[in-house]
Amino acid sequence: xxxxxxxxxxxxxxxxxxxxxxxxxxxxxxxxxxxxxxxxxxxxxxxxxxxxxxxxxxxxxxxxxxxxxxxxxxxxxxxxxxxxxxxxxxxxxxxxxxxxxxxxxxxxxxxxxxxxxxxxxxxxxxxxxxxxxxxxxxxxxxxxxxxxxxxxxxxxxxxxxxxxxxxxxxxxxxxxxxxxxxxxxxxxxxxxxxxxxxxxxxxxxxxxxxxxxxxxxxxxxxxxxxxxxxxxxxxxxxxxxxxx
Length: 244
What we know:
Blueprint: H1 5-9, H2 13-18, H3 24-38, E1 45-49, H4 55-62, E2 66-71, H5 74-81, E3 88-92, E4 104-109, H6 120-133, E5 134-145, H7 147-153, E6 157-162, E7 165-174, E8 177-186, E9 189-198, H8 202-211, E10 214-220, E11 235-242
């Protein structure tokens, strides 16, 4: 069967090359803000859903929490496992499927790890699985893009050179999704990948959360956890509690 874009691209070594400059300090600062705000008890069970290479999961494990990192990409999970932290376990897993029922105190989804699927019902399935995985009154944190800012500031084309590879990146919006087309030559081969994320505004996100009985209790607009402003905020960060 033909792989979906997220199955092939996220498992490619070139994905990690392109995004290698993601700021570990920024990740650590965001984790510090979240922990100060949420105040999880010592030893709380935390899932990093779509954990990638585990940069956020590792920061959480360092703070003494019982952390599980899940990702669909075997390549990413292999990298995360090499960090070998005693508080961190990782597994290949599809976010649409439940993992451990009523097991986690907190579930975090960082860096726009949502809105990948053709059908919005698949996105709702992700949220319903989050509900199943959470303990009663468990908390879910989603770090998503601010779709208004994406529409306003979309850069149609740019080039970025990383490790001697020139990535040619074009972006467009079509059918309610933002597309990022990535082309490059490496190891004497031409490659082409496409990222695609559904553009979901705050009101639409509230509706999706309601379908999964997740009650949104806070909305922030950046990694400093300042209030959300649809015209100015770079991010849409939602904090929800398991309802029922």
